[in-house]
Design goal:
The structure is a homodimer of 557-residue chains. Chain A is of the alpha/beta class. Chain A is built from 20 helices and 20 strands.
């Protein structure tokens, strides 16, 4: 029987090639089709999800002490799943104990297990999609793609980087130095991968798998044990992932405690305690800037990788086609109700208007066209429900109310909306507010997470660029859309945003959006501004998760 | 005229191959021969060193404010060189200003400049050897090799890793995704290296160039500006290196403020202020554990790479040939009077003795043979002077006195020695003290830097291993010598020390020593115990000194 590594080596080779060339690649089909996943996969997935509800989620890991869990679907359904609570004084030592055999099994054994886990996650994509949908509020299609195949691709990318990094040093070498005309000193050397210890992945509530898998798989592949601490409102997708991972580890003859779940609640959070435990040597975090910065400053015993938040801008200088522009932008604003860390918040437009196909259009013309394009997405209920999804939590809904009343001119008001399939869903249409750069900096120089867009009138594009770069430097930013038909302006905007550590997307129209990041090609978060200190995924994301320890010995002479 | 990159690309290619295979490689000849370096090189180097003495060391960098300098050769000569003091409020902004053009010049231009600097450093190896000798106290041959070619090799190794890391992502890619039977979305993507900012290298007093070059060249090659802060007692080697580097930068059309010197004095140290400045984004540190830990804890705005100290052990279980063993060990103990961070301090020997060539020898027999071998190195004055060098500073001399009087049994006493060439040299012969594991843990469970060796009687080899691993975990360790003729014991000792993050050297005899680390093959410091958080040199040492920022644009369709 082939090993897991042998079974999946072609996938690994393709991933290695993709991270080198950074062209398009995906290992896991993104279309939720019966032809790919099996004709019953959709129904099976839905049934499997339903079967999880209203009962305890069992995980056979040590140190269980009571249960916790109060997930409620943004679409209105209480999941009513109870997860085991963990006694860290029992669980963490058990994880440490599991590491030596995992370490000594070698690179191929570990990478093979990771690839098999990803493969099985992929086969369970429909079940995971429902879990992601009913914790994050994403529409089903998005939950399937971003929570399933795209997340699996990001996990594979991390495994590929880990494999490349671990194999760049050979396991053994012969060092022969000629020390005189006749004499050579020869040493046999061995180089061994030494994992750091216990790694913790702190999950987020919006993309628990997509943001979680890279750290989980990078740490696991490099020989560490991984403790997964999901966001209290989005436990199920990661709990399922841990369950699947433990199953593969067990089948491969390893201690399943290499991958564990630590669930908590908003009322009794455990993350601060967990990430500062002496056993914890690596922390991967996705979530709010405030808490991410706390971890960066306080988890001094660990390597800390953060993906936080920021204020994303779009700089509108000049365009060719108004409809192509607004259609593209409006989808980015509507998608998942602006609850992506890559969604544009501040749209900078010169207050004297812009050239559209060589013809001057006023600020209000452009603003009106953006509103119209957003309205179009919402005009058909099924499309609106799929695109908007639901508002993940109450605080985001409250933030919309705050933005409605605290200043500027509302050019498109937010309203509660119905979702035909889920009458209790928390749905609010996007809010668009007009601000002026000369007096509203207080309002737009902060993150307003959710379906809240500011159209900001500026003196000119130079001011738009300067403000976009300034907010990125001060508050972080992950993406920046730039629209300009002038090559020199485009280049200047790209350069200034690059200098602020922001990835730019220029003149996007059609079916590719500023808030999408493709595994193997796009670096998600730059790591050079307050939006995070790491990227998904590069060499720096994996190279320090392990050390190399060497031994040398006189060769027989 | 070929570019610097073209001129040196073969050297780079060889270095890239060497870090991949980790066999023997050296780019810079270690033999101080007239045939290699020019028949007058030795005299020229000595004259150039003499010409530096008793005058100001001029560097044309901004923000000079007064002078500082009180280096005194451990061989007894006051250097009487004054270096400019730096106003950080002027110097650091000038360095920041130099970065964009350096960044935008691209990988090959930067790497070419680094390779040319290394080449010129190599041509100046004799001058640098005198500077290293008369600041560190190393004998001339060691100062030439470790301070010259071997240091240059370590710098080249860092450049090779930086080049490999920067080029693993292409500068541009085409991403084409088929979105339907007939449609493909195509994006042109560019990936740009974004340096962190100003890097600081904090030099040490014993190996200023060997430990300094890796960080300096890794940061410079990846687009950062580098501020060199030498140890107040070993400024000249790094000041010369900065001068040479600035000359190459200027010739290549770059702002020389990409490489600057910040000198200070023991009385008015500036390091704490410097490494916590907001402009400083990277710190490389070599020196005491206490100060290194302070930097790790306090320079939160920067990436911090530390090479600190530790307690190195040698585990003696069984040997084939007593003389081959003691000759090898004694040289390691005598070399540079034990002032290497890789020198063994604790020699663990079972108190019931060991098998030597199958025959039992008592603890005292073995101890006596070690003492005899050390005495042999000191028996001929010229050899003794060359091997011992001089004691770098008074505190190390005082530590010998402390060790003589605070416990244990002296089996070889330390005494002041004469150096015929330098009558004022600070020379003390090695001290060897016998301790017992059962009662002297307090004495050997700490670093006693200098020519101080503890021979520690243990219950058995298992206890020797346990104690060596324990001190490594608690206090750090960089190297461990292991002597055993039993394969299983050897393997167990290797595994337990590896688990503690210590590089092992097994059964060394002849002309290769536990305290030597070869560039391109040996990882110096593991990064997995308190002796330091980084290694010279691996992917993790370079990969986070820069970020990659991307831009993507719709391809014309």
């Amino acid at each position: 029987m082939p090993t897991f590594f042998e079974t999946h080596h072609k996938t690994l080779d393709q991933a290695l090639e993709a991270i080198r060339t950074r062209g398009y690649f995906s290992a896991y089909p993104e279309v939720p089709s019966g032809k790919t996943y099996g004709e019953t996969a959709k129904d099976d997935g839905a049934a499997a999800f339903q079967a999880r509800l209203n009962k305890p989620f069992e995980i056979d890991q040590p140190g269980k002490t009571g249960t916790v869990g109060d997930e409620r679907s943004p679409f209105g359904v209480a999941l009513n799943i109870k997860y085991p609570k963990a006694d860290l004084n029992v669980l963490l030592p058990a994880m440490q104990k599991a590491i030596p055999a995992w370490r000594d099994a070698g690179i191929e054994a570990r990478v093979g297990v990771c690839l098999e886990i990803l493969h099985r996650l992929n086969r369970r994509s429909f079940e995971l999609a429902s879990a992601v949908m009913h914790t994050t509020g994403q529409g089903f299609m998005m939950a399937f793609q971003a929570g399933g195949p795209h997340a699996q691709d990001r996990g594979l990318e991390a495994v590929a980087y880990a494999y490349a990094e671990m194999t760049r040093t050979p396991a053994a070498a012969t060092w022969a130095k000629q020390v005189s005309k006749t004499d050579t000193v020869t040493l046999k050397k061995t180089y061994q991968i030494l994992p750091r210890g216990v790694a913790v992945t702190v999950g987020c509530s919006t993309f628990p798998t997509w943001n979680g898998y890279p750290g989980i798989f990078a740490s696991l592949a490099t020989g560490n044990a991984v403790c997964v601490k999901p966001h209290p409102l989005a436990v199920l997708p990661l709990a399922l992932s841990v369950e699947i991972g433990r199953q593969v580890l067990r089948e491969a003859g390893f201690d399943p405690n290499l991958l564990t779940l630590v669930a908590d609640s908003a009322a009794a959070p455990i993350t601060k305690e967990l990430v500062t435990r002496p056993e914890v040597k690596i922390v991967d975090y996705t979530g709010s800037s405030e808490f991410g910065t706390w971890i960066e400053q306080n988890a001094k015993q660990a390597l800390v990788f953060t993906e936080k938040a920021g204020v994303n801008s779009t700089i509108v200088d000049s365009i060719t086609d108004l409809k192509a522009f607004t259609g593209n932008l409006a989808f980015s604003l509507c998608l998942y109700s602006g609850q992506m860390c890559t969604t544009p918040q501040n749209i900078f437009i010169p207050r004297d208007g812009i050239l559209v196909g060589g013809e001057k259009k006023s600020f209000d013309d452009v603003a009106g066209a953006i509103v119209k394009a957003v309205d179009w997405f919402l005009s058909e209920p099924a499309r609106a429900s799929e695109v908007l999804g639901a508002i993940q939590n109450e605080r985001t809904a409250a933030r919309i109310q705050q933005a409605r009343t605290e200043g500027g001119t509302i050019v498109r008001d937010s309203a509660a909306m119905k979702n035909d399939a889920f009458p209790e869903a928390r749905v609010h249409s996007p809010l668009i507010v007009k601000l002026d750069a000369s007096k509203d900096a207080k309002l737009f120089s902060r993150e307003m997470f959710g379906p809240i867009t500011y159209l900001i009138a500026t003196r000119d594009t130079a001011e738009s660029i300067a403000l976009a770069a300034k907010t990125a430097r001060e508050h972080g930013a992950i993406t920046c859309g730039i629209y300009s038909t002038d090559a020199a302006t485009l280049k200047r905007a790209q350069a200034e945003m690059a200098d602020a550590g922001v990835a730019t997307s220029c003149n996007l129209t059609g079916a590719i959006y500023v808030n999408q990041a493709a595994a193997f090609s796009d670096f998600h978060v730059c790591g050079a501004n307050p939006a995070g200190n790491a990227t998904l995924c590069d060499g720096a994301f994996v190279s320090n998760r392990f050390r190399v320890v060497q031994s040398r010995e006189m060769a027989s002479v």
